[in-house]
Amino acid sequence: MIWKTILVAFLAVGVLAEYKVSDEQREHVKEMIKNVCKKNNAEDKVDEVVNKIKQFVDCLMGLFDFNTVRQEIEAAKPKGALDEVFKKYCEKSPQLKTCIHDVTAAVSPCLDQSQRERIPYADSATDQLIDFVCYKDGDRIAMFIAEGGPECFRDKASAIESCTTGIKSILSNFDEAKKLKLADQCKKVDELTSCVVKALEECDTPTPGNMAESLFRYIRKDSPCKNI
């Protein structure tokens, strides 16, 4: 489940960087879901899982109209009022956590026993990720925006994608992923962290790189890697 936490982190970054999910990527994810459900004798759950994921997207869009958020951010920048914008949206974090818990519960039947046992950890990890972003009513994310964080991620999108190659190869092959010892998994995460931070350090300000490094450290200290 540590990979799920890392994915959530990149999805959060992707939203800020205006990342677009293609139809091909959606089909790839659906095919992965089919394969996992079939392997665990839950092929009849595929449509239910896919629908739950769609509901999660609807939930997300219901909580946050990203065009409106973008307009509010641009209007707040000249006034130095970004903290007010993010305070408003961080107040919705309990609903967001519920949406995430609902989708992890829906995926549960398609996982093997050991993975199902880790769902509470995954829920806790994503909760803490949201808490990290919304620390002090969103001070961190406000600083990230003010210091050109989204622009930095857009400029370094190719470099970041290259950093994730190893993670993608593991996620696309669950059998291989399960063979990896925890120490090897943690090593992959640490390599990813170093690669991403190094790419972001080439931006005009140090804030995006510093925040990414802090985020990865925050995730790591509450993961199975904390003692490795």
Shape by Cα distribution:
globular
Q: Could you tell me the mean pLDDT?
A: 81
The share of residues in extended strands comes to: under 5%
Number of helices: 15
Order of helices and strands: HHHHHHHHHHHHHHH
Helix content: over 70%
The first-to-last residue Cα distance is 16 Å
Pfam family, one: DUF1397
InterPro entries: DUF1397
Keywords: Signal
Signal peptide: 1-17
Give a short overview:
The protein has 228 residues and is mostly helical. The chain has helices spanning 2-16, 23-39, 46-63, 66-76, 82-90, 93-107, 113-117, 119-133, 139-146, 149-155, 157-163, 165-171, 174-179, 182-200, 207-221.
Structural features, described:
With 228 residues, the chain is an all-alpha fold. The protein folds into two domains: 27-136, no CATH class; 148-223, no CATH class. It has helices at 2-16, 23-39, 46-63, 66-76, 82-90, 93-107, 113-117, 119-133, 139-146, 149-155, 157-163, 165-171, 174-179, 182-200, 207-221. Helix 5 packs across helix 9 (139-146) and helix 14 (182-200) runs antiparallel to helix 15.
SSE blueprint:
Layout: H1 2-16, H2 23-39, H3 46-63, H4 66-76, H5 82-90, H6 93-107, H7 113-117, H8 119-133, H9 139-146, H10 149-155, H11 157-163, H12 165-171, H13 174-179, H14 182-200, H15 207-221
Give the key terms.
228 residues; mainly alpha; 76% helix; 0% strand; globular; disordered N terminus; 27k hemolymph protein
